[in-house]
Fold each of these.
Amino acid sequence: MTLPPATPDLAVLDLLVSVADTGSLGAAARRHGMTQPAASMRISALERRLRLRLLDRGPTGSTLTAPGRAVVDQARTVLAAAATFNETVTALHAAEIPRLRIAASKTIADHRVPQWLADLRAIRPDVVVSLEVGNTAQVEVLVRAGEADIGFVEGPHPPPGLGGRVLGADELVVVVGPTHPWAARTHPVSLRELAATPLLWRESGSGTRETVEQILGAYGPPAPPAAELGSAVAIVAAARGGSAPAVLSTLVAAPELSTGTLHQVALADGAVLTRQFRAIWHRGNPPAGAAELLVRCAAGP
């Protein structure tokens, strides 16, 4: 389809509609970032092109002629169609942008994901990444529901019904504040004693909590929690104040241990508490493309 020679461009139609909306050629010119003489010249050129008088210009403003009103009505339809066209093109471009939806437990999100994403960006800078942060149970829910392409969790076991890959192990340490009696203790704490001691816990669904509860469960029913707190930051603050011991990832505890605001408590018999970091995914949608590259970045060389 070839446009007739008299077909005006969209910009001058938009200017004419602004004159109709504002009732003033000067106000329309300001809306479009041009001088009034420049706007007047553009409208005059449109009138010559269409061979119609569109405006009655007077000292109090500009008013549309009858042909001008008819042209404005059609211009609004054309401009609305052009806006829809542009929105469609923008949506098509957005659909072509590769996207990766990640869900990660809090410790991994804070201490591991930033480096993994930097490594991924070095390989695939075109990928747009979104990250949801929660505890291990919440991440599993997002992956099962298909709301995350891949998840990163910690815990002693692979989540049932999901695919996954172990990425490595993370050591857990028992810590207390400087004023807690265990800070001055000269002999190690046994796992049996730790199990019988009220601890500062994360909320149910935390991978750290699940790991520690499973280990200590072999030594008798665990003591009631000293407190259940929703973040590692809150647990660190409570432990720092000496209220109770806590079991934390070395990733979380390291800064506090280095400054002496927390003290590590030795465990008897060389016991070591560890948990696994793993990538998880829906079995019907194993990682591919950017998701597979991210798993490789997380697993390391």
Amino acid sequence: MDQSTTLVAAFLGLVEGLTEFIPVSSTGHLLLAGHFLGFESAGKTFEVVIQLGAVLAILTVYAGRLWAVFSAAPYDPQARRFILSVLIAFLPAVVIGVLAHDFIKTVLFETPMLIAIMLILGGFVLLVVDRIAPEPRHEDAMAFPLLMALKIGFIQCLAMIPGTSRSGATIVGALLLGASKRSAAEFSFFLSMPTMAGAFAYDLYQNRDVLDASAMGEIAVGFAMAFVSAVLVVRWLLGYVSKHGYALFGYWRIVVGVIAVIGLSI
């Protein structure tokens, strides 16, 4: 792996960590950046596998809280209910993700213009929902009703279209279902753990024949950058959205999407 490839992998890892947990589509940003930088990974595995760095960032930030929940699960119904709510929300992504995996990776991931358009459309959706979301009825992400969690899980599947944003879909869904801005982001954090870990494991299995030593070097660099930058974002995000909402991210999506459309049209 030469120096230029190392720098590109580090840059893409930074992009992944900075964008994974905010509703701007980390995958969309990665694929567009890779397209304009001329970066290619076998089976788009780099883009998926470095997300594990962001998963570990969430686990690091929430380690104490997660340990308390799982330790209490044998005797605390509320802890068991929270774990079940995350698993229920995760289930639709398992079924639809496995069934549509080849189409997603070979068609949707290979269409930069679609990604740019979804960034723009998602930006407008985020701006509208940030303004019209109903009065919050659910303030605690660890106490969402099970049916609400299942609905959020189905809405998350929209993010299989690159440029939509996994966190964006789950946050918008949660807001429309009565979650507060903070709890919507936090439930998105919790749901990201099984969703991203599952995507990582399945994609690694599907592309096991095309991975090589040089690809693992790129992945390691991107992984490390994604982990560090994601830790910083997670620690900052909840406080920001509690005070300011999601409008900034809507405008960001629109600007990036328009620039991408222009760049792809030239």
Amino acid sequence: MTGMVTTPEAVPVCAAALCAGAALWWSAGRADGARRARLLLAGGPATAPVAGAVPPWVDEWLTRLRRLWRTRREAVCVPIGCVVALLGASLLPLLIAVAAMPLVRRWLRARRLGRERERREAAVIEFCGVLAGELRAGRQPAEVLAGLAQPDLGPSWPEVAAAARFGGDVPGALRAVGRQPGAEGLNGVAACWRVAVDGGAGLADGLERVAGALRADRDQREELYAQLAGTRTTAVMLALLPVFGLLMGSALGASPLWVLLHSPAGLGALAVGGLLECAGLWWTARIVRAARGISGEARA
């Protein structure tokens, strides 16, 4: 773990390598997009070769890397751990980075699910507004519902359109789609459909009330997020302070990474600091969850 030798020249070399890789990735993406645009405007095939383009093997590897970034973003922990391990002449940062991958994967999955929930909620509100407007224009509910496409509401939505087109159980199909996180408003739509499907005006009124309630709930949640933005920003800044301290120490020539990774006192400080960092992030997340829970009880 201590057989590696770190020199001051390693820092600019690693930074230059990372910048070159990022520039190559970005330029390849731009070149590929520009090439396709020129070919499409010229009326030629999108796969025709262009002189001076990126070599095929480079483009293939960059495509694989971009696909890996879209599907396995937590893998970025490994190159970061490698760079820190190189600068600190120790394998400990690499081991920590590998151990952190499941936590990063869980965090990224939670963010993705949150974005999907917000998209479904917005799609339900839009669906209620469009359906109510069409009903007030004199169209039949089943006719409107059969022609609406809602890709953000998941792969089960075509079952709703099929039920409306062929006289099936539309409320049941709506409730089935409403089991997804963020699509709970469809349960209210199903209730309105069951009691007022024979009168378009009554159904339109119910849909507008459902849309208004969902919109008010979303606005209240966004207001809560805005109020918690200061707390979350403070937590992020406090979490990044140790990184700034290491950078300042390295700029002053104190070799903080070497002290942390190659001395008993440094290893102890690293362990205690890591525990305190995790405890602070956990406590901040607990405060945010408690505030969201209080907000949810107030809405109920």
